[in-house]
Structures are given as structure tokens and as C-alpha cells.
Structures
1.
Amino acid sequence: MLKKILRSYDYSIIAVYFLLCLFGLIMIYSASMVVAVQWFGYPADFFYEKQKINLLVGFLFFLFFAIFPYKAYKNKTFLISITLAAVLGLFAVVLFGHVTNNAQSWIQLGARKIQPSEFAKISVIIYLSAVYSKKQSYINQLNKGVLPPLLFLVFVCFLIAMEPDNGTALITLLIGMTIIVCSGMRFRTIMKLVMLGLLLIAVLSPFLILKFEKIFTENRMGRFAGYLDPFGTGQNEGFQLVNSYLAIGSGGLKGLGLGQSVQKLGYLPEAHTDFIMAIIAEELGAFGVAFVLVGLGYIVLRGLFIATRSKDPFGAMLAIGISCMIGIQSFINLGGMSGLIPITGVPLPFISYGGSSILVLSILMGILANVAMFNNYEEKFKAEKAVPVPHAEPSQPNANRKWGAQRRTFK
């Protein structure tokens, strides 16, 4: 039994997860050593050592969730617990959260900080997947099958936006909508949801106009100004994006060499967090960027493949939610640092510095590995049961007697 289980794990996706985490650890050291000394007065390996501890803890959580059966998450008590934990954690942030980079997104626990909005993604993925998998028989009934879980999603996104953390709120909303679209609803039901969303925006538009200055603050509008005209606002709003362009352009095909970045010397803010890909492009060139993109792309596509193979709707939606979260977050991070979309302050999965981020990703990757293991195990187990047991060959005397009986019958 144990050998069958161990043989059923998808070791390719596990290997890519470990490789990306280790690569990210190396790049965090390279990108943060100057910042740690010059800006904070820390040792050069300060952020490297902290991330190393984060990764070790994350690996332990990964192993636990890779072994723990994912089907247990459908338990009603467990679902109530994770939803309450998510809501209470977000309320705690709004009431007495720690402010960093103009966002009240963290709770200080002794010497460490946690970001409840990151853990809320786990609650959203598990809760929506479990509830919609149970509602398959009436999933197209709007009042009974669709709206109750959707209200939870909207409420969680609202609390995250109140911090304010619009990037994480957008990612959480997109994750939830992806699970809803893939839950088995008819196209007509999805269009009804779209119409309800448009109606809600129309109802809230007067409030948005009245509270325009509070909602669209100078800092938020500055991000749009830096996005639309980075070089015209290069001394203020566009400063970060312009220096990201310089880092990307300097790297070329092969890069300047590991540790040889110029932009990390104080020119590019958040070099070891949101803009770490710019440092990768500068030091390792197109080859380093390709390594990260191929790794992230493989995890996303492999996760979607795992979803298509799952006979269990809950497992399929879990795999879809996890894969899409990694894909959406990667797109938003890379789009911001390349000027494709406005900067949102979202970390690059597995690569950027951050304890809450790597812990959440490790938990979700463990769940994805467990879904894949169950798929493979059930397929192999059913295949073994389906193979007919071969009959024993008759012994020579029996065969002779049978042949003799056939000869007598023929005569």
C-alpha cells in the first residue's frame, strides 16, 4: 500500500516547486544584500537567512498537506472553521493591522509579521471548491446553488480592499470567479452572474463618485500616471518602472552575471520582493527569465492537467483554483514590472521574498500534489482490478485426458 502511494505522486511538479524555491532563495540573496546593509543596517545575508527559515517551514507544511487526504477538507466543521478564520483574520488587520508600504495588510506577532489576506486565498479556494462540488445537482439554481458562496467571496475581497490591498483583492476575486466558471454551471447561469455584477456596479457608482477622493487616493492615481507615462514621471511615480526597464535592458541575452546587478544598489526599490524578476533579467539575462517562466508555466499547465484527470469534482476544482492562482499572480507581477499593467505590489510566486506568500504557496502545492496522487492511485488501483486473473494452465495428465475425450467424441 505505501509503495503504491509513493509511486503515485507526481514528482515532476514537486521537483519544479523545489527548484523554483531554491532559485528564488539564491536571487533573494543577490538582490537584497546591498539593501540590507545600506538601508537597514543589517548583515548582507539578513533577508536570505529569513527566507531560508520561511522555506524550511514551508517545506514542512508542503509535506504535511501532500500526505493529508484532500477529501477531508469537505468536512462541514472544517469549512466553517477556515471561513471564520479568514474573516476574523481580515477584520483583525482592518482594526489593528501593521502598516507597510501604505497598506495595513500585516499583523505583528512578536518579531514576525503575517499577512492574513494571503491565507484568505486558501480559504476561498477550498470553500468554493467544496461547496460547488456538493451543489452539482442544483448548481444552476441561482438563489440556492450559486449566490451563497459568491457572497462569501465578495465579502472577503471587500475586507482585503479595505486594508487597502487592491492587488490581492483582485487576485482573490479572479481565483473565485475561475472556480465558479469551471464548476459546471451552464453558460446562461454565468451570464446571469455577469448581469448581476454590472447591476451592482451601477448601484454603487453614485457612492464611488461621492467617495472618489478617498477611494482613488493620490498614491493609487500615481501608479496609473507612472504606468501611462513612466519616463515623463521618471523622478516620482514612474521611478520604479523606469529602473525596471533599465535592469531588463541591461541584462540582454546572457546577463551581467550573478551578483553583478547595478539597479539593486539602491536604484530599484523592492528589488528582492515585487521587482525581483528585473534583477534576474539584469544578472542572468533571457536565460534566467526563461527558467522562471518555464517553471511557473509548467506548474500551471500541469495543475490544469491534473484537474482534467480528476474524477472527483472537488479535486478538479481545487487543482483549477491553485493553478489559476499561481498563473494570475505571476501575470500581475510580471505585467507590473514590465509595464504591461499598473504596478500592484504583488510578489512573484516562489521567487519573491515573503514569509506569508511562500507558506501559502507551499500549502497549496502540497494540496495539489495530494490531488495528483489520488488521481494516479485510483487509476492504477482500478486498472489492477480490471485485469482478469489468468487461469492456471492444466497439467499434462489433465490435458491428455481432455484430448482423449475429444478424440472419442469425434469418432
2.
Amino acid sequence: MGGGGQQTGPGEPGSSSSSSSRAAGVYSWEEVQSHCSRNDQWLVINRKVYNVTEWAKRHPGGFRMISHYAGEDATEAFVAFHPDSKFVQKFLKPLLIGELAASEPSQDRNKNAATIQDFNNLRVQVEKEGLFRADPLFFCLHLGHIMLMEGLAWFIIWYWGTSWMLTLLCAVLLATAQSQAGWLQHDFGHLSVFKKSRWNHLLHKFIIGHLKGASANWWNHRHFQHHAKPNIFRKDPDVNMLQIFVLGATQPVEYGIKKIKHMPYNHQHKYFFLVGPPLLIPVYFHIQIIHTMISRRDWVDLAWFTTYYIRYLISFVPLYGLFGSLALISFVRILESHWFVWVTQMSHLPMNIDHEKHQDWLNMQLQSTCNIEQSFFNDWFSGHLNFQIEHHLFPTMPRHNYHKVAPQVRALCEKHGVPYQVKPLWQGITDVVRSLKTSGELWLDAYLHK
């Protein structure tokens, strides 16, 4: 949430504070909160007030992410996403316009100061323990096993034949490699595995572009919003269901009262199996990826994206022909999409989904996130995203350290009475369907009776 830009000076447009407080550069929370529109955005970091209106357009994490904190205290989110605060400070300095008045609390609205302080202390402690340091060997070995699966799929078809059973085995291996590459690019999108950032940046482009056929910038700008404001309507793109589904307990009732019926939502737990897992990646994501790269003129990502399909067609067209190769990759994408949807949604969709409540970092993340039990299979299957709680609290922590910090997080939650949910894998998957059914019933009740 840092960067360079312009600041608003005394008497300039974009401010509604009194001239006396403006001249002194001292502001109240009420004044900061009034600057939350698209063309007028202030935020607070460590009691310092910044005007990020112009900088938001150039923010490396995307303008939407930083805009979601306009008019708010962004301290916890800033710390979570910027491990090198000294580097970011040089971008923040030109945006500084003042500070909070001494009489103002450090937290905005009704956030619990004790919870925030204890979580900050925990973060300092795990930093001292070295849990934010990545092990490059872990990620290199993971990349190796992905490339091995792709190579094995290619070897089976080229040397053993193209029978339907071998083709099915090839598709499963390719889908597995695609899914595991997805978890790996997710790692490189969040953290610096190597000390030299250019290598980290290049590997991220290679993995998501060449091994998956997607866009690094598209993914980062979308996914960082999810981490910044998880399960919050209009701020988390993962709960933007294009009115195909209604989620949580609030949205269904709102739609029902307004008599909104774009779909038979009381049956959404059934048609979810037709339009959710099989179509998210091969249809919706791919349309969005291509549109984003072209509209933003992101030619570097487009070039990486193209190399994936060139490599794939060279490998399989000689065996299956163009039509057969397209059919195979479509089937692989459908398998991958099922894997992705169940893993990502089992920790979020059954949780609280609502409008902005302006909660502190710990409560916001824990109310929208749960864990899946640890096991060797669950760790591998989910790319360690069975530790979603730890991942959301510490998005720049390497995944091989989630299990180490989990007991400390659980203890902090117990101290402050924050629910820390852990489920078996089967329950996490079935809860996705159950939550859709419950939300659909809430919609039908409101639609018929209110």
C-alpha cells in the first residue's frame, strides 16, 4: 500500500477539513473517513495521514486494493503486505499530509486495541523466529515435481500410445501439474522466495504464464483484494458471483426482499455443480484473463500466456490433431477447475460473508476463513492452503512455516474469544454445498414472505 504520488495541500480540492486543522496537518478520524470516494482517498498508517488519490492508479498491488482502505486505518493491511517497510517508506513520504490529532485513538471505529496489540506482538515474535524466511530448496523441489508430472504425461502418450485409458491418465497428470503449479505461482505472487526480487518476479511469470497459461498481473490484482477484504461484498472479487449465486446470510435476504430472481436461488446448491467447478477456470477466468491483458496492454503477460499454448500444441497436435488437442486441454482445464474451486472455497464460502464491518485484521480474517485438518495428503492436495487462517493472517509467510505458527495463532484466538475453526477435508467440501443450500432457502423465504 505504498508508493509515490501527489499530496493535497492546504486549500486544494479533495478535502473538507477545517482550515485550522489543515494548516497544522492534524486530522480527526471523522475527517479522514470523509475522504473515501473514487476521486478523493485518504488513509492512515501508524497514525500518519496519507493522500493516495493519485497514487492509487499506480499502486503495484492494483488501484482497487488500496481504494478498499480509503477513509480507514490501513496499518495492519500495510504491514501484512509490505515486509520491507523501509523500502516502501520512500514512496509514502510524498503522500504524507499530516497525522491524527493526539486526542484521537490509534484505531478507527470500534476496533479492539488489545486484540490489535497482541496480534502485532505475535507478528514481531514470529519474525524473530525466522518464520517469514523462505526456503528456496522447498520451492525448487516443488517446481521439479510439477515439471516431472508434465514430462511423464508427455512421455506416456508419445511412447505408449493414445488409447482412451492412457489419454485419461495423461489428462489427470496434466491437471495435477496445473493445480500444483497454481499453488506454486500463488506462493511466488505473495512472497520473495529468492533474495533478488527479479528472479522471484521472473519465476512467477514463468510458472503462471508458461506452466499454467494465465497472467501474473491479473492474478495479483484480483487475489490481493481477496486478502485485503475477504468475504466482503464489493471488495472481495471472490464473492462477486455475477448474480448467479447468493451467498451468506445477508445477501439472500436483501435479494428476496427486493424480489430479485436472476436465478432460482433455492436450487443453487444443485446448479452449482454445472456452472461452478467445471466452468470457473476454462470459461470465466480465461475470458477475464484475455480481456484484462488486452485492455491493460499487458504484453509481457500475454507473451508468457502464448508460450503455454505454443508448447502444448507442439507437444500434442502431432498425436491428437488440432481438434483432439483442444478437446484434451478443455478436459484438463475442467479437472483443474474442480480441484481449484473445492480447495479455495471450502475455507471461505461456508464462512461469514457480508458487507463492510470495518473490523480489525484478526477478527476480519478469522470470521471469513477456516482451516482444514493437517495431513500429508491435505498439505499436498491444497498446496498447504488447508492452513488458510495462517495464510490470511500472514500472507507473506512461506507455506512450509504455517504449521509452526498455527499453535500461537490458536492461543491468541482463545485469549480474545475469536473462533478458530478446523474441519476434516470431507466436511469442508460438503459445507460448500450446505452453505449454498442454506443461503438459497433464506432467499426463498424472504422472496415469498417479506
3.
Amino acid sequence: MGCYVGILLGLILVLRWGLKSVNAWIYETNLGKKKIESLPPGDLGWPVVGNMWSFLRAFKSDDPDSFISAFVHRYGSNGIYKSMMFGSPSIIVIVPEVVRKVLLDDKTFKHGWPDSTIAIAGRKSFIGISYEEHKRLRKLTKTPINGHEALSIYIPYIESNVVSALEKWSQMGRIEFLTELRRLTFKIIMYIFLSSEIEHIMEALEKECAILNYGLRAMAINIPGFAYYEAIKARWRLATIMDGIINERRKKRETPLGITRKDMLDLLLECEDDNGRRLDNEEIIDTLIAYLNAGHESSGHITMWATIFLQAHPEVFKTAKEEQERIMKNMPPGQNGLTLNEYRQMRYLSKVIDETLRVVSFSFMTFREAKKDVEFKGYVIPKGWKILLWYRSVHHNPENYPKPKEFNPSRWDGYVPKPGTFFPFGGGSRLCPGNDLAKLEISIFLHHFLLKYKLERENPSCPVRYLPHPRPKDNCPGRVVNVSH
């Protein structure tokens, strides 16, 4: 009997070894012996799924960093590892200088988002287009979003909505804090891009964006009941709504009095290349979906986390509040509301936001693809392989940030991050074009929250869900209390 058990165990081990070798045989055999020997250490995982089960298991636990820790434990602290992620042979990078090099070298690397992700975001979205097209579209949209004049124009609208929302929430009793914040940031981004405050349109778009967002980092299983399938359906519904909005706007633009205020949609409709070609509906839809989705998700989540961290650290709350009180006290007589001048004085609050961005690492990694064979630190990254720049590990590395799990805004006092160690909004040519607007929104909210309110969480010990972005599983229910009364 023992003999049969031994044979069975042996067969299982051989089968396991064989299955674990399938991906290596498929993706490494044609590289040649010399190149194979120069690949980084790592593991291509199981056939088809690669390392995705390990990734999902880690990110659905209370320790998402265990995924990278397993590579470090098994293959050393070199910081470059081969893997099989999102359907492609990939190189995971957690070394700051290599992360920075990949982000800045557009001649050697291009965007590398999986086809499944591009199918959701749109083939003509920022993550799906070429470097030249991306540069042109970024140039078109950057100034109307992040420009000095644009930010000055947006401040009164953002501030009035923040003040109104906080007062409303304080009277509502129990709310889902994250849910309400996402609605607020979505309303703001809708105003900037579509000048629309029609409730039924906002609710429909926000709902579909939320579903779409959950599928961006899910396994590409296009079967009913899976997040990816639902995201594809949401993408179709979003595109249908957008197409109707665009066609309606085109009709309005045919009359001189049809447009009273130019928004981002107007600018996209007016955009044309050197040959006089204008953007078609698909190009505009993909651009708008990208901005609407990213523009409110990041701002809403980071605002929630900053509020939670402030409330959990009374000494930080006190320092931040005192700064905002000084700013209010020093405002010119007769001035109503904030301006960019006051915003630039929020130096400590800026550190609070940067520390929140570091700890949370909202976008924990991004994708690139090697255009040619390239060598880093003695390892070869083959042409066509994906490079996964793991920002979360860089932000949580104690060599870059002592006691990295600790929320400590004072670590930024007189501190300039070493190159390649801080990527809250990505980097290089693909730096998020709405980063300044996002920080402005967060700062205005925290300014008014610190002056008059506190958050009483219903379940402070609620576990965190890390996909697609870190958030309390219960969406942070609680009460916003007006303490100025």
C-alpha cells in the first residue's frame, strides 16, 4: 500500500512540475539559450492563469504585499522578477532607478496594458493609443484641466459643492462616506467635462463607471457573473450614453447661441490635426470615459483615506487645522472663498495628501512593454514582454521610507523623494494629466472638513478591500458631525 502511495505522490510531483513548465516552454524556448539564462529569476506560474491566482489571493487578503514578498523570499532582493500576469509573460520591477528608467524611456518602452483592459477602457483611450497620439491628446487636454487659469475657474465651483455637501451630510445622520465622496467628485468632474448637472445623467454615468472600474484589474473571464463581463457590458452602456450626449452637443453647436460655456467636450469637438481631421465619436467617447472614471475614483478614494488618517491621528489633525485657520485669518478683507493663493499656502496639508498617496498607493502598479530587448542590472527583458512597475512596493520599501506602514506627514519636512521613489500619479509622458486638479479637489475638501467637521466611523476596524483600489469593504459608513455649532 505504501508503495502505491509513493508512486502516486511521485506522479503528482511530476505532473505539477510538468504543468509549471508549460509557460516556460511556450514563452522562453524561442528566446535562445543565452537570453533564457539572462532572464530575471522568477516563476511563470500555471498554464493560462500564470501567477494570477497568487496575485488575486494576496490582494483579497489583508496582506496584499505578500504577493511581492513571496518573490523576494524565493528569488532574492534583486527587485526584478519574471512572472506571468494578465495573460502575458511579464517582468515585475520594484527597483526605483529601473522604474524611473522605464517610465522616462519612450524609445524603448511603450504602454503595455493588457488587451482585456484596453477593451474596457477603449482602444482609442489614453492607454490604448500610440506615443504620438497620446502626446497630442495630452497636450490638448492638459491646459484646460491643470492650467493655472482653469484651476482658478474651477475653485469656486468645487468649493461651493464641498461646502454644500458637508452641511448636507451632517444633517443626514448615517451615510456611506466613500459613496457620498465619489458622488461629489463625479459631479465636479462632470461639470468640467460636460457642463452637466442633470441628476439622472450623472447617476447613470457614475453607476456604469463604478462597474467598469471593478473589471479593469480582474481576470479576463467574459462570462456572466464575473467582474470582467460586467465591465464590458458597462462599457457598452457608457458608450451608448456618451454617443447620445455628443450627438446632442454637435447639434447645439450648429447654432451661434447653442453653447454658453466651453467645456472639455467642446474642446474635443473642435480639435483637429494638421490635416484638418477632427476626432470622431469613438475617440471622444474613449477620452471622456478615461477622464470621468479616473477623475472621480482617485479623488474620492484619496479624500476618504486622508480624512480617515487625519481623524485617526489627532496631532496631525490639530496641526493641519491650525494651518487652515491661519490661512482663513490671513485672507484679504472682503474676499469670499479660496483662491490659488490660499491653496499654495496649504503646505502641511500638501504633506498630508502626499503621505496619504504614498501609504494608500491608489494605483499600485502600471504596465509597459519592451519595444526591443533591453538589459537592466545584468538581466535581459525580451522584446514584447510586459513590464509591471510595482509602485506599491517602491512606496512601502523601508529603504525609501523608514517605517513605511506608518502614516507620518512630517517625514516630508524638507524631504525631496529620491528619483524613482514616489509615483502617486505615474510618471514620464504618461503622467496623469489631471494630477493638479485632483490635489486641488482634495485640498479644498480637507480645508472645509478640518475647520468645521469630524468623521465618526461606524466600523473603524473594517477590513480593507484592495481591488481594484484600496477601500474599506463597507465603504466607510458613519456620521459627519458639524463641530462648529
